[in-house]
Amino acid sequence: MAKKKPEEPPKGSPAWMATFSDLMNLLLCFFVLLFAMSSIDEAKQEQIAASFNQMFSVFERGASAIGDGMLISNGVSQLNELDEFINSTGKMSEGDVVDDDVAAAKEQLDEAKMEESEELSEKIEEALEEKDMGKEIDIEITSQYVQLTLKGSLLFDSGSTLLKDEAKPVLDQVGLILERYANGIIEIEGHTDNVPMSGAKYSNNNELSSGRALSVFDYLLSVTNLDPANVKHSGRGEYMPVADNSTAEGRTKNRRVEIKIYNTLSSY
């Protein structure tokens, strides 16, 4: 019987080798493209840096954006997050030297905040004087807010959270002021003296101060169209006195309700 002639292998390279070669070529093209895209175009980089200079004045030579007052005049609200930005870099907290442009911008922002608080305070004082209520409400200002302080004896009886009838006309006027001028967060804080509670509904001064702040909160919302989401209330108890609790006069001053009207530039 004749032997079968063995089959000759196909001519040329094996099929797998062609596929492998195509894959290597594709990978080579891919890395060449990556390398091409990673090359730095100095002209484009300078354009990007210049764009950031105009927007934030953080890079070198950025004084033209803030030093000449462009951001302040066109809208100082763009700088509201400046404090957060500085703290996030760690420079302020570590005591390092802050860039002159950033420091100048922060100073201008603080000045703008105080100016807005002062303007708001003047408007509120005029409104209270028109109603002859300047003596019932004390006004203080910071760069963050305008604070209205109402005496506890005007609003409540001793140990009570029920508003007096004579306090309601004053709170009505406060409500009108808040509706007209409050464009940010409003915070109502109740404060007490350090005399312990005894035989009253509330077991301690923390509960009493919280209940009084809530009473003012509820009343203001009932007579105004304020957004409750923008109004906060809290009780601070006896822990933030403004006078000496060892005297009757000091304790009277410490029994109070504070209403803080935060300005639109506040970081609150």
Give me the secondary-structure topology.
Elements: H1 15-38, H2 42-56, H3 63-66, H4 70-75, H5 82-89, H6 91-94, H7 100-130, E1 137-141, E2 145-151, H8 152-155, H9 168-181, E3 186-191, H10 205-223, E4 231-235, H11 248-254, E5 256-262
Parallel strand pairs: 3-4
Antiparallel strand pairs: 1-2, 2-5, 3-5
Helix pairs in contact: 9-10
Structure notes:
The protein has eleven helices and five strands; from the N terminus they run αααααααββααβαβαβ. It is of the alpha+beta class and 268 residues long. The chain has helices at residues 15-38, 42-56, 63-66, 70-75, 82-89, 91-94, 100-130, 152-155, 168-181, 205-223, 248-254; strands spanning 137-141, 145-151, 186-191, 231-235, 256-262. The N and C termini lie far apart (102 Å). The chain has a five-stranded mixed β-sheet with strand order 1-2-5-3-4.
Low-confidence stretches: 58-74
The radius of gyration computed from the alpha-carbon positions, rounded to a whole number of angstroms, is 34 Å
User: Topology as H/E string?
Assistant: HHHHHHHEEHHEHEHE
Strand content: 5-15%
Strand arrangement across the biggest beta sheet: 1-2-5-3-4
Q: Give the helix tally.
A: 11
N/C terminus separation: 102 Å
Strands, count:
5
Query: What about the largest sheet?
Result: 5 strands, mixed
Structural class: alpha+beta
Shape estimate: elongated
